[in-house]
Amino acid sequence: TNPSAQPQRNSPSPSPRLTPKTSPKLMSPALSEISDPSDASEGEEDEWELKKKDVMRKLKGVDQQAAEQILNDIVIHGDPVNWDDIAGLDQAKSSLKEAVVYPFLRPDLFMGLREPVLGMLLFGPPGTGKTMLARAVATESKSTFFSITASSLTSKYMGESEKLVRALFQLAKALAPSIIFIDEIDSLLTQRADSGEHEASRRIKNEFLVQWSDLQAAAAGKNTDADVRRVLVLGATNLPWAIDEAARRRFVRRQYIPLPETATRRVHLSKLLSHQKHALTDEDIELLVTKTEGYSGSDITALAKDAAMGPLRALGDALLTTSPDQVRPIDVNDFIASMRTIKPSVSQNNLKTFEEWAKEYGSSG
Ligand code: ADP
């Protein structure tokens, strides 16, 4: 937590945040059909504004300011991620399809024993695509995507956080199907809740668990509106062992997102190079695939970005007067040189800890 974080109070007048900063492409269900981001027009913006007003009008007993804050800061509209944007992770993708995407799209087929889960955890080393997967799930299931990191919930919104948590769940139900994505969820559901932890953090954790239980209880009810069953809490963490046991059990599915395997690294590297001027042969790429064993997805992205600077670095000040077509292509030596500084960010030891946790607590399949 950030000790300097001040309790955040909303301004009494409609907050300036109400004015959209950009012209976002919307991911809320009714608007997800819009396909070309370059078309993101005022029409879409108006549509989202109308939808927000409509939801605010219908919701009863929700803290108005918290709801506005969520609609403006926490519902994500821009840059939808699709399955194809994510290299590899086939097992995780199919598990997410079965647990979330298909049930959300065909609630009529997923009832009774086939009821969708209300909690799913993505765990694994940092930079392996957990956030990307969550975003892709939201896009592919045409869900409203609520995204927040646990630390911003406990610091940025300190003082307002409980209200915010309540409003978050109420809005998620109102805008269902919804995904509530909480990154770094370990810091919200930590085991050390009683040992000198901030009283405020403990209250937020409790409120979160209460709201989540209510959702689970409502979904279990016979006459429940199908929409309540289409609200998923999707948590991501690099520290799954820090989550307390009771909270852990609520994540019915716990999906391990490992470091990329050989085939995944090949796809990822090829994708990164596909729109670049480069001179790498298939053999060069195979060499890099081998040499990047132990790299995470984000390490590979960082490596490729650094290697892409190679041809420009070689120019020195001449860069200022060189035309783009005279810049030499990226080659394998640029990658090899970048490997001296861009190293795997996950240690072997750390990896072992993940694998052991996955064996003990992960969902198979
Ligand atoms: P995590 O949430 O697991 O820490 P992210 O999903 O935020 O990781 O990924 C960080 C960055 O790493 C992404 O923005 C992307 O550039 C890259 N990346 C990681 N994994 C993949 C993957 N499987 N396919 C494509 N890019 C990836």
Automatic annotation (TrEMBL):
Biased composition (Acidic residues): 39-48
Region (Disordered), start-end ranges: 1-48
Domain of life (superkingdom): Eukaryota
Limits of the AAA+ ATPase domain: 116-261
Family recorded in the similarity comment: Belongs to the AAA ATPase family.
Name of this chain's protein: AAA family ATPase
Taxonomic source organism: Starmerella bacillaris
Lineage: Eukaryota, Fungi, Dikarya, Ascomycota, Saccharomycotina
Residues of the full protein shown: 483 to 847 of 848
